[in-house]
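ugh ok fine here u go
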Amino acid sequence: MDMKKGTRCNNLHYNYDLAECDWLLKHGGVKPIGCGKHDKTGNPYIVFLVNKRYKELESLYRQDL
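structure:
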């Protein structure tokens, strides 16, 4: 998976696309559970709990591009 968009691990999604993160948070129903910075690249990310609403919004965001 493209690291710019994020990495999935079980029900967690490490999202490196901050514009997408902002859009998801503004549309509600997603659960950010943490944030951090990649050890090697220094790129910031937000960790989301993946649920049905997250998947729906992620799909809508990609359609809007």
